[in-house]
Specification:
The chain is 31% helix and 27% strand. It has 489 residues and is an alpha+beta fold. Strands 9, 11, 12, 13, 14, 16, 17, 18 and 19 form a 9-stranded antiparallel beta sheet that branches. The model has no long low-confidence stretch (mean pLDDT 95).
């Protein structure tokens, strides 16, 4: 399958992407891809550095005639989000991504593709390896752990880079040029409870929510997509209030930066309510499907009798507070930007809900382009969870990237884009977390810009990269490199 991808144009880009996708590279487990990148730089004979946290920097001199141009930093992150369909057998720790071509799209077989941010990494690799592409001096910066905390960007020390311009290759619409992004903070609520024995005369049920689209919890948060954890809680709330349903376990969602696609709950009800419970649940299922029929046409909610009845369940009072706290906790867009049209300012993703064995864990990712608003929403979530008796922790906070409308490199990119395409690029700020804001804390004078090829469905097994867009993007990159401004005197 990868050979089909290797034959695509531009071959330099797709071949490097195929090489990269053969290397397992989950966030927090980047040892193999770090070694791969270190070996790549050293084989080219360039200065290759691994910093104290694992970021890799490869420095390539300017091509002849370009020595008077400003040094640029080309930056992408090495890690990728690992998501797969429930029926896909795949080990992200040992297997390379299995790719195939589907019309104008490159996809993966039942898993995330890794185009986020693998196409950016592959672009830089292709430029480093090239012998006939004009460019100024390049510092290639490959960061780690972007997807689960941005610890690579946070750990990059000042003084490691000399570049005056940073090209971040991590956006997902080829007609957009990003000049700003949201910051984020992880909100985690934990608690313990004393399980109780399942009452006699109970029957067990398994409730499954699946078939949702999922997606990026920043870029896709405004699309009205279903959140499996919120849908599941709605079902549990009704079952608890009307039939005394008790929860044995919940397993919902996976990663903070992915809108949860699936949730499974083990529950019990009294035998006497058996038929009424199933009938009532079907009414609620139909209501939810009707509400989400446009955005989630493949949503499935299945209620089945369990083969065995759970022996232990959550006490009614603990459950009372849990389902109400989850109902109260905000999910989705909280506020739109007053300064940029159609830009989400602040949002939250209730990403993961795990309940069972006397413990509960709720994980959210709160984003905002306004730092004070980010913590305002985080505190609202904290209040809901503390009222139910949870301990709440804020971690992994990172700043947003403040737009600079007077950017010199922005003028270069907008001019080239219009010349190549006959239309103006959309200059935007995005609601995703880009590393530019963090890198700017130690490199405040660096002129930063972000752009990339079209990628849809990032952070989900539906992730796909446009082949025609990659060709458009590659042409854009090459002309940008030829037009980097001359060094200041």
């Amino acid at each position: 399958m990868s050979q089909e991808v290797r034959n695509l144009e531009p071959k330099a880009l797709w071949n490097k992407f195929a090489d990269l996708n053969a290397v397992p590279r989950p966030s927090k487990k980047e040892e193999r891809v770090i070694a791969f990148m270190m070996d790549f730089g050293k084989k080219l004979g360039f200065e290759t550095i691994k910093d104290q946290v694992g970021n890799v920097i490869i420095k390539k001199p300017a091509t002849p005639g370009m020595e008077n141009r400003k040094t640029i930093v080309m930056q992408s992150h090495l890690d990728m989000v690992h998501q797969k369909n429930n029926d896909t057998v795949f080990d992200f720790d040992t297997q390379g991504i299995e790719m195939y071509v589907d019309g104008d799209w490159v996809r993966a077989k039942g898993t995330t593709l890794g185009a986020d941010n693998g196409l950016g990494v592959a672009t830089i690799m292709a430029i480093l390896e090239s012998t006939n592409i004009p460019h100024p001096a390049i510092e290639a910066l490959f960061t780690i752990d972007e997807e689960t905390g941005m610890t690579g960007a946070m750990g990059l020390q000042g003084g490691m880079l000399e570049g005056e311009i940073l090209l971040n290759l991590d956006t997902e619409e080829d007609d957009e040029i990003d000049i700003g992004c949201a910051g984020g903070v992880d909100v985690t609520a934990v608690a313990e409870y004393d399980e109780e024995d399942t009452p006699e005369g109970s029957v067990g049920y398994t409730i499954t929510v699946k078939g949702l689209q999922g997606g990026h919890s920043g870029m896709d948060i405004h699309k009205g997509l279903g959140n499996a954890n919120k849908i599941m809680n709605r079902l549990l709330f009704d079952g608890f209030d009307n039939f005394g349903l008790q929860i044995a376990s919940i397993k919902g969602g996976s990663l903070r930066n992915a809108i949860p696609r699936e949730s499974v709950a083990q529950v019990i009800i009294a035998n006497v309510y058996d038929e009424a419970f199933v009938f009532d649940m079907q009414d609620i299922i139909n209501e939810i499907k009707t509400e989400l029929k446009t955005t989630e046409p493949n949503l499935q909610i299945v209620i089945e009798k369990s083969e065995t009845t759970p022996a232990k369940v959550m006490p009614p009072m603990a459950q009372y507070y849990l389902v109400r706290a989850l109902y109260t906790a905000h999910n989705g867009v909280y506020r739109m930007s007053a300064d940029f049209d159609n830009l989400v300012e602040t949002s939250n993703n209730i990403a993961k809900v795990i309940v069972g064995d006397g413990k509960l864990n709720i994980q959210c990712l709160t984003r905002s382009s306004v730092e004070t608003a980010k913590f305002d929403l985080a505190n609202a979530l904290r209040s809901a969870f503390e009222l139910m008796g949870c301990e709440v922790d804020f971690s992994g906070s990172y700043p947003g990237w403040t737009p600079n409308a007077n950017s010199e490199i922005l003028d270069v990119l907008t001019t080239i884009y219009e010349k190549q395409n006959g239309s103006k690029a959309h200059v935007v700020a995005c609601h995703a977390g880009l590393e530019c804001g963090i890198l700017g804390t130690n490199y405040p004078d660096m002129d930063m810009i972000s752009f990339g090829p079209t990628i849809h469905g990032a952070h989900s097994p539906d992730e796909r990269a446009s082949i025609s867009s990659a060709q458009k993007y590659w042409k854009f990159v090459l002309e940008i490199l030829e037009n980097i401004p001359v060094k200041s005197n």
